[in-house]
Amino acid sequence: MRAVVRWIRADLRTRPGQAVAMVLVVAGVVTALLLSATLFEGAANPWRALFAQTNGADIWLRLQPGTNTRPLHRLTGVDQVAGPYQATAATIVRGPQRAPVQLWAMSPALPATGRPLVREGRWLTTADPLGVVLEASFAQAIHVSTGATMDIDGLDGNEVHAVVIGIAYTSDQGSYPDQTPGLMWGLPGLVHAVEPVSRHTVEMAGLRLTDPSATGFAVQQAVTQLGSGAVISVSTWQDVERSVDGGDPLLGLLLALFGLVALGGALLAIGNAAGGRVLVQVQDLAMLKTLGFTPGQLVGMVVAEHAALGLAGEAAGIAVARLITEPLMRQVPAGTLAAVAPLQAGWVAAVAGGVAVALLLATVVPGWRAGRIWPVVAVRPPMPGKRLSRLARAALLTHLPPAVVLGARAAFTRRLPAVLTIAGLALPTMMITIGIGFWATLDNVQRHPGELGLAAALTVGPGELDRPQAVQLIDADQQVAAVYPVATVSALLPGETSTITTLGAGTSSQPFPFHVAGGRLYRAPGEAVASQGLLDAVHSGVGKYLRMPVGGVPVIFHVVGRIIEPEYGGQVLAYGLDTLTQAGAAAPPVSYSLVLRPGVSAPAAAAYLLNVSHGRLDVVQTVDPAANLSIVRPMLAGLFAVLGLIGLTSLVTASAVGLRDHLRDVAALRAMGLTPGQVTASLLTRMAVLALIATALGTAAGVALSTRLINLGGQVYGLGSGLGSPPSAAAVLLTAAAAIAAAAAAALLPARRAAQTPIAATLGP
Amino acid sequence: MTRTHALSLRRPSAQLLRPPAQLLEPGPDPEPGPDREPPLLRSVGLTKVFQTDGGPVHAVRGVDLWVRRGEFVAVMGPSGSGKSTLLHLLGGLEPATGGEIWLDGKRADGLTQAKWARLRRRHIGFVFQFFNLVSSMSVADNVEVAALVGGANHRQARERREELLEDLGLTAKAQAVPSQLSGGEQQRVAVARALAHRPSLLLTDEPTGNLDSANTAAVLRLLRRSHTRGQAILLVTHDARAASMADRVINLFDGMIVDDAAVQPATLRGVAASSVLELRG
Lengths: 765, 281
Prior knowledge:
The structure holds two protein chains of two kinds.
Chain A: H1 2-14, H2 16-53, E1 59-63, H3 70-73, E2 78-94, E3 97-105, E4 117-121, E5 131-135, H4 136-141, E6 149-154, E7 159-169, E8 182-186, H5 188-194, E9 202-209, H6 215-226, E10 231-236, H7 237-245, H8 248-280, H9 282-291, H10 295-329, H11 345-372, H12 390-397, H13 402-411, H14 415-447, E11 458-461, H15 467-476, E12 480-492, E13 499-505, E14 516-519, E15 527-531, H16 532-537, E16 545-550, E17 553-563, E18 572-575, H17 577-583, E19 591-596, H18 602-612, E20 618-621, H19 625-629, H20 632-672, H21 676-717, H22 729-756, H23 759-762
Parallel strand pairs in A: 3-8, 5-7, 13-18, 15-17
Antiparallel strand pairs in A: 1-9, 1-10, 2-3, 2-6, 2-9, 4-7, 5-8, 6-7, 11-19, 11-20, 12-13, 12-19, 14-17, 15-18, 16-17
Helix pairs in contact in A: 1-10, 2-8, 2-10, 2-11, 2-20, 8-11, 8-14, 8-20, 8-21, 10-11, 12-13, 13-21, 14-20, 14-21, 14-22, 20-21, 20-22, 21-22
Chain B: H1 2-8, H2 14-17, E1 41-52, E2 55-67, E3 72-76, H3 83-90, E4 98-103, E5 106-107, H4 113-123, E6 124-127, H5 139-149, H6 154-167, H7 183-195, E7 201-205, H8 213-228, E8 232-236, H9 240-243, E9 248-253, E10 256-262
């Protein structure tokens, strides 16, 4: 044991560069994995934690006013009932800013089920009858904090001046503005002041189930008991969770994938490095055996040394991840729940443990090889390969310079290390290519948001103006390229338990310019396009027919195309507004989606419209889901660095192993008359051949996989495929060139040293 | 190196391989008598066959030899005669194809690598022609690690290292790495390392083969001094002068012992090296 420790210390002292590279690789991978896990969990779990903390209701029923909710208590499987709470739609007005809101009437005592979690300020109190509490993401989006004042405009034109006394989290709905309207709580008196006519209000009742998965059955029972006329719409915890997850699973999945592949690459690099060390030090290791080291001790020594380096890397990785998580998380757009959650210790332990186990496995094989060496190797030099490889023979036959022939021959003297070197470089190259593809997709989405279904930068409601006045103002705006009337109508699918959103967007003759990924846009009344998420939810597809009640009348839609639409939880059906008119449905309230002229910024256009209407138009900027993804850029850059380091480690190992194998050949060749330059060239050729093969394989695989992976991510997200852009050829070529240049650089220094060493010294033992 | 030479030899016919009858006469004490102490090292019918592309090569053919405690035995023979291979087999550096090896009265052939390693810790020290110091370790570490693996604690290892290096005039070089030393210095460190765990038998393979005359003399002086302190040594060498220090000289040819003779006591010192050998029996 003491002897083992002595040897490890000596080895680390002699080759500090290799040790540092290994620590950096592990640290980079652990950081990448932890950040992925943070984002992944941030995207998925905080809502669940919040749901547990607030004892959230599994189902929220939106009921007609005056509905008798007592039968709900008797339903099988219902544990607790929250509410009913009177609720009304209203608009918050602060200067020129207007935001739609749902105002719930609640009592000063917090309920047992669906209990908002106060983050700052306090809960409603009778001492402050005009006090309201705002849902946290909504408050953040409209820049309101405790103590702010605001006007609440009811639908009937009543205006109430209120004060914000608290900000609270709730698990009852997704974050604003992914989910509109915003949510706000006030005392019943305040709600009555905003909307005195009770038939213009709705009632919200929450059900907490004994079996949370049985939402479908519970909704059916509730609708049966209360009567279908009483239930306006239904939302289940699954709907809320889906809408909260919204923009992030893609991100989380992508980063998790990158993290895992980086881990694979790191294992390969570390396995290669450990294996390379065993090869390079085979004589020293065999010598230790002649001194009395047992095979077990040698295995232990190789594994222990690399495990120690791996642990150091892990510790560094955890520290770095802790340091940079906070600033990175700040880049997550406001309102995303991810910002709430620091990574739990369990995740850190899982990542650290997983990496440690993987590291051990990666070093056991080279360790075992070290243990099997017969000590006689210490005193008997290895025999060089006898035959020329096919590649070298081809080089010879084509009359290439001798240095190239020799380099090509040297590349495959040892098959397994050659294959591992190629894999060790091809894997990072592939991942970098995929990363470049993702980068290109981001560029594309941000440059052409229309491809994400975000053709319109602004949505404008008439607000306090008449519709013709509003249309006139919008038409007069020179910054607007096109205007489409849009109406959002909920529909409860027959046989389904949740409400879906349908969009009457434009008309059949002038359809809204959705990004169609399959099929075509609607061109006639009755035709519709749907997002992949909706098609999946209703088990339908392009070309099929869907029948559903919209606006109180049954409508049959012929789905003629699939669109990419990131809003509404990825579940949306869109059609021309004339479809509704033709079906005899009442005309829904319409707002206007504006497509701006190229070069016009959305905030500027919004400010202009608010200005010309004197703040009377409702102007909302479209949320860009790609903004959520912009956090990916720094992470991608970091991953590129980690992957580059992994590739470089493999190259340096390969260079050292190759040099050791060919040192005697080199001396003999020089004795035969090869110049130092030719010797250097032969060693460079050896690495370049390996690097060429690796980059060719890596970039080919990366290009082939990149679009597919992004589309796969899109499908998980509910967007369907058609989003991915291929990586740019220039960037891919640059990566390949960089990899080959790095390979040459990794070989150059040792090669020059070998070429200049006195011949006699290398011809010795 | 030895193996490479062995590969280049043509296989002589069986007839030619048989040495004259009188040369096959056993040397002193082929078998230990009941009244005698068992030899420290004994091999019986030891063989080694290398499988090569050109067919099997018989490097060692049925070698019977022994080394007593405190005895200094030299093995001589032309290049490719199997000297080094024989030494490797006796130290367990590579497995024998056939035959028996007895070390300190216990059978050692067929042991696993781990058991051989433990055996070497107690009984065997190696010195090679090309020194073979562990390149990543300092001189001090090279010597101390051998003591540590042999069971010494840190303090004992340090003491032995200091003692040995002082003995060899290398105290000033303790913190140097092997590449900073001359060949002679490296070989002296190798001798120190081989003796650091106080082995009962020192196996040395051409220890002076790569040294100039001054360093050769220094290393031989070291070996002799160590022998006078009771160290058993098996020395493989080309150098008749080195062999003349031994108690007994074994001649190997084509992997077989062709001669095993005691060396005249020191009274004949100064006479030509070739006349120092005396055939017995």
